């Protein structure tokens, strides 16, 4: 028994050693199926501990996409300065040509409610025209703001012609009225704008008027008219009292590629701004410099004197070729009072009538021209950018009687 004990111990130890080596062998065999070296993109990926990948019914590995290239540490990256993209240039608007403006304005005027033409046609087409009818004719003309002198002149002429004609068909009456109204509006007046460049300097145009008539808007619209005529234009923002007036004018100019000279100081001297605008216009050899002035009440002596100062300062380096007075046609006879005062201060050369929508107040055209001897050169009917056009006597009368 004692002799067998060493043999039994040796067998037990051997079995223990063999038992310990079996797990090591099995583990080594499993690891031999894993990828221990470099793999290419077509090798199947080993399964993770969670078992088969989702979407693989057979429990096999999925193809691994190409690995991204090794990223260079940020410190090793070369810094490249990228130039900022230039902002897209704003597209410029194309102003409506003058011919298109006239057609558009004529159509709008004809569609509006004009008491002048329709009222006179209705009265003079009656079978019997007695004194009561003539009084109504006179009242219609006065309500149209034609003015007392012009009204009496027109009534007397109509009386004589009705007696001579004896026939009052609508066609005859319309023809008669057209002739007499055209005479009152006076197509012989020179309505051209003095905007021809001089040999060594631009033409200078000032725009004046009371508060709220739309001077700045008129300057902006007129800039569009001139651009449509291939004029090189510069704007001067001499309205330094109204908040945002300069920015409003600059916006109008930018829409058609016209620069604006303005001051960055609130309440700057308007005469100095106007002077600088003309100076820049001379240096840049533009065709026309337009000066927008501050609105002022015609009964404020100090403000009117300042307007005269603006004109005098401009004339130190250039002549003022055109002074346009902007009037609201709906103000009627009050507009005539304004025109008289402005004409005394800055020598008005032309009138711009805004809001001339065919209402009874349209007769102010006749009154202003007869009183001042100054022609209406431009008219506007609406708020549109191209709702400003040269005034034409015959087209205006035709629209009234349409």
Provide tags for this entry:
13 helices, alpha/beta, elongated, 8-stranded mixed sheet, 402 residues
Task: Sketch the major β-sheet.
Answer: 8 strands, mixed
Give the overall shape: elongated
Strand pairing plus helix content: what structural class? Answer: alpha/beta
Percent range for helical residues? 40-55%
| C-alpha termini separation | 147 Å
How confident overall, as mean pLDDT? 75
H-E string: HHHHHHEHEHEHEHEHEHEEH
Low-confidence stretches: 27-84
The strand line-up of the biggest sheet is 3-2-4-1-5-6-7-8
Helical element count? Answer: 13
Radius of gyration from CA coordinates: 44 Å
Please give the number of β-strands: 8
Strand content: 5-15%
Structure summary:
With 402 residues, the protein is of the alpha/beta class. It has helices at residues 4-31, 98-111, 115-124, 131-143, 148-165, 170-185, 215-228, 245-254, 270-283, 301-314, 333-346, 364-372, 393-401; strands at 203-208, 233-238, 260-261, 288-293, 322-328, 350-354, 376-380, 388-390. Mean pLDDT is 75; it is low at 27-84.
Layout of SSEs?
Layout: H1 4-31, H2 98-111, H3 115-124, H4 131-143, H5 148-165, H6 170-185, E1 203-208, H7 215-228, E2 233-238, H8 245-254, E3 260-261, H9 270-283, E4 288-293, H10 301-314, E5 322-328, H11 333-346, E6 350-354, H12 364-372, E7 376-380, E8 388-390, H13 393-401
Parallel strand pairs: 1-4, 1-5, 2-3, 2-4, 5-6, 6-7
Antiparallel strand pairs: 7-8
């Amino acid at each position: 028994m004692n002799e067998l004990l060493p043999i039994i111990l040796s067998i037990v130890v051997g079995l223990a050693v063999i038992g310990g080596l079996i797990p090591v062998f099995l583990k080594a065999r499993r690891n031999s199926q894993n990828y221990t070296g470099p793999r290419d993109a077509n090798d199947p990926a080993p399964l993770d501990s969670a078992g088969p990948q989702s979407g693989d019914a057979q429990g096999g590995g999925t193809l691994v996409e190409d690995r991204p290239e090794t990223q260079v540490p940020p410190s090793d990256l070369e810094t490249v300065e990228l130039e900022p993209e230039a902002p897209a240039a704003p597209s410029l608007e194309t102003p409506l040509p003058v011919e298109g403006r006239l057609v558009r304005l004529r159509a709008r005027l004809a569609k509006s409610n004009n008491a002048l033409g329709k009222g006179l046609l209705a009265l003079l087409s009656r079978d019997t025209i007695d004194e009561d009818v003539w009084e109504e004719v006179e009242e219609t003309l006065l309500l149209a703001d034609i003015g007392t002198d012009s009204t009496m002149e027109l009534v007397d002429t109509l009386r004589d012609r009705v007696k001579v004609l004896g026939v009052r068909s609508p066609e005859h009456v319309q023809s008669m009225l057209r002739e007499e109204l055209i005479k009152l509006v006076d197509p012989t007046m020179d309505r051209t704008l003095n905007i021809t460049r001089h040999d060594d300097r631009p033409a200078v145009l000032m725009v004046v008027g009371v508060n709220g008539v739309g001077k700045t808007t008129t300057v902006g619209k007129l800039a569009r008219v001139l651009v449509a005529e291939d004029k090189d234009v510069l704007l001067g923002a001499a309205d330094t009292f109204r908040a945002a007036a300069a920015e409003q004018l600059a916006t109008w100019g930018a829409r058609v590629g016209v620069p604006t000279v303005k001051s960055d100081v609130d309440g700057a001297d308007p005469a100095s701004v106007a002077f600088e605008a003309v100076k820049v216009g001379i240096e840049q050899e533009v065709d026309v410099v337009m000066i927008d002035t501050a609105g002022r009440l015609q009964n404020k002596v100090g403000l009117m004197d300042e307007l005269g100062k603006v004109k005098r300062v401009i004339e130190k380096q250039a002549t003022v070729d055109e002074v346009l007075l902007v009037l609201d046609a709906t103000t009627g006879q009050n507009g005539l009072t304004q025109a008289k005062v402005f004409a005394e201060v800055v020598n008005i050369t032309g009138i711009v009538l805004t809001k001339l929508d065919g209402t009874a107040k349209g007769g102010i055209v006749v009154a202003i021209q007869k009183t001042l001897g100054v022609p209406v050169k431009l008219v506007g009917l609406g708020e549109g950018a191209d709702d400003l056009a040269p005034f034409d006597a015959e087209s205006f009368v035709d629209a009234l009687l349409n």
